[in-house]
């Protein structure tokens, strides 16, 4: 990759995800992530976050930069306990700064909500219209999400298949989309959490014995030992590490990981 | 209707909607409506509100009573300018108090978001599973919404038809669902706003010359003359009137109204 490419990619969107075995709030990670939306980085073109709570799912989106958004301020201070979270701060590449272009996107498939956020850029990406899902906005990201869901639905019309079957089809369509450009994404139905790395994505799993963590983007620490119980397990996935005193694992380019209950279970 | 039936109906959910010709905030109406979620009335089992902004749509839902919800507090104080709004406070009849059972519900149809909220109760309502949309939660309301969207999609597979064609099909499926119980609802795709009255629904259209309005549920007044411009037109639709110094129009039982640009255009 050329230096100019790295620069281009560094100015794209950023992703943050969480998957855990007990409902957990994301206030600490979101605070650091949020600072990248205009304070420590330049992702000022809107942001969004989705929380799964049981079968339910609520999404908060805003076209304001996350550091200036009253809704982001609420999310930082109002602990929502969730097992699967997907957040996104946007640096627009395709599609204007409009609400319909804010990630994460959500659709219902097989009677469950599916949520998707993308970091990257798919050049000249014009998939054929599918039978079920159509984009509302005009981003490459929502087109890719609709293509993924259309493919899953057409392949498995009866309902969600086994994880292994689902993974194979998702991997194939992901690889084909990734040929069009940079395609880092997070995807979840509240049961499984998929993380695809095209160029840049890392994760950390926090489990017993817990330690203290310190944010890179804000001078804030948290002592998880005081907050977590021995059996708790939390996976945090982010475009770049959020803390400077923990060891994050870099996901390989082309790798599609599946997390469940706070653990990476398939790759 | 027997006195006991009236009592039963009075304790169900409540609806609030807005349709207007210029993006307008709903802070004033929402403040009065919100009080009914545990202060002036007993609709304590969650609440929600959806805002259309251009093609985009954002929904805020919470299982907490609206009078005790930090998210409702944000909505009361953060003016979101929208042309179509649907809000709901819940008194659970079917389905537990869980996030997936909070109204409004949202799906994508023909590349646009559709939002739906229901006041009433459909006894023994078990429509056959449709080809496209499935409920995520277990309310009669979400089943009815999915049945409506499945019917529209099957009837018009090519995309949104003329309003007249859409209205006829929506009226037919609405009448057939309304045979199962009480079915007051609000439905919008951000372009048209549909309001169906089964037992209780009223509306008011605010336009030039604007006057002051005073809430029933909170001692709050607003002078629209100071806020609105001569061409502005705003329709507010609610289960029961929100103000005590304006004349609200009661929608007839069995009537399906369509609002656009702040005016009732079809019934």
Automatic annotation (TrEMBL), chains A, B:
PANTHER family: GLUTAMINE AMIDOTRANSFERASE, GLUTAMINE AMIDOTRANSFERASE YAFJ-RELATED. One of its GO terms (molecular function) is transferase activity. It comes from Microcystis panniformis FACHB-1757. This is Glutamine amidotransferase class-II. Pfam families: GATase_4. SUPFAM superfamilies: N-terminal nucleophile aminohydrolases (Ntn hydrolases). Keywords: Glutamine amidotransferase, Transferase. Residues 13-267 form the Glutamine amidotransferase type-2 domain. InterPro entries: EgtC-like, GATase_2_dom, Ntn_hydrolases_N. The keyword Transferase applies. The keyword Transferase applies. It comes from the Bacteria.
């Amino acid at each position: 990759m050329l230096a100019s490419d790295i620069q281009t990619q560094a100015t794209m969107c950023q992703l943050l995800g969480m998957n855990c075995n007990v409902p957990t709030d994301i206030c600490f990670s979101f605070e650091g992530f949020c600072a990248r939306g205009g304070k420590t980085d330049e992702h000022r073109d809107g942001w969004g976050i989705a929380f799964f709570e049981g079968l339910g799912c609520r999404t908060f989106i805003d076209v304001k930069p996350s550091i200036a958004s009253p809704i982001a301020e609420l999310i930082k201070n109002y602990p929502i306990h969730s097992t699967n979270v997907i957040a996104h701060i946007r640096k627009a590449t395709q599609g204007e700064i409009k609400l319909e272009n804010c990630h994460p996107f959500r659709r219902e498939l097989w009677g469950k909500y599916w949520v998707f956020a993308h970091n990257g850029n798919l050049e000249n990406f014009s998939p054929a219209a599918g039978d079920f899902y159509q984009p509302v906005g005009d981003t490459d990201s929502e087109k890719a999400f609709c293509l993924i869901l259309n493919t899953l639905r057409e392949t498995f019309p009866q309902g969600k298949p086994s994880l292994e079957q689902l993974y194979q089809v998702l991997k194939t369509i992901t690889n084909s989309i990734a040929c069009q450009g940079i395609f880092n994404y997070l995807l979840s139905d509240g049961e499984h959490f998929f993380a695809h790395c095209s160029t840049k994505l890392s994760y950390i799993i926090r489990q017993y014995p817990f330690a203290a963590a310190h944010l890179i983007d804000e001078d804030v620490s948290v002592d998880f030992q005081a907050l977590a119980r021995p059996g708790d397990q939390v996976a945090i996935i982010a475009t770049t590490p959020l803390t400077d005193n923990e060891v994050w694992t870099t996901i390989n380019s082309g790798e599609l990981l599946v997390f469940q209950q706070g653990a990476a279970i398939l790759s």
